[in-house]
């Protein structure tokens, strides 16, 4: 079993779009309408949007590879690219997804540890993320990793307003 990580570049935009669609669908399609899923996927993962996000200095994407196959990805934001104003001392984990077939191999923990490493390198004092209140497996994982719920915010899946728990880990 070989696990490694690679920072994404603009040249990775098509591969990023493919894994974004796949993992988001696997995670949420059974709990949302097809119309809302399609609307969200088109807005969040169209190639122009991904290329724009890849070009931000304060956002980074990483692929995680399991035996040389892309198994998931991570997106972190700092400063003004955070989806909520959490201040300059925070790093946001905006996306962390693992393909279903690669789950239960420690890859989520591997990516989350990468985010923590980035936060420490950038002298951040906390790391935070939003997780859908109905995503019980993810909530349990983040709690196990030392995150606590510190708030909530709205997330729009198409035209449906949903609630994401804000979970934070302070480490300095």
Task: Write the SSE topology.
Blueprint: E1 3-7, H1 13-28, H2 34-45, H3 47-55, E2 59-66, E3 69-78, E4 90-98, H4 107-121, E5 126-132, H5 136-144, E6 148-157, E7 160-170
Parallel strand pairs: 4-5
Antiparallel strand pairs: 1-2, 2-3, 3-4, 5-7, 6-7
Model description:
- Helix content is 35%, strand content 35%.
- With 172 residues, the chain is of the alpha+beta class.
- It has one domain (3-123): Aminopeptidase (3-Layer(aba) Sandwich).
- A seven-stranded mixed β-sheet has the order 1-2-3-4-5-7-6, with helices on both faces.
- The termini are far apart.
State the total count of DSSP E strands.
7
Q: Can you count the helices?
A: 5
| CATH fold group | Aminopeptidase
Q: Give the low-pLDDT segments.
A: none
Number of domains: 1
Give the SSE string: EHHHEEEHEHEE
**Overall helicity:** 25-40%
Strand content: 25-35%
Reported for the largest beta sheet, the result is: 7 strands, mixed
CATH architecture: 3-Layer(aba) Sandwich
Q: Which homologous superfamily in CATH is the superfamily?
A: Gcn5-related N-acetyltransferase (GNAT)
CATH domain class name? Alpha Beta
The gyration radius over C-alpha positions equals: 15 Å
Secondary-structure-based class equals alpha+beta
- What is the topology, as strand order, of the major beta sheet? 1-2-3-4-5-7-6
Quick check: average pLDDT? 94
Could you tell me how far the N terminus lies from the C terminus, measured between alpha carbons in angstroms?
33 Å
- The general outline is globular
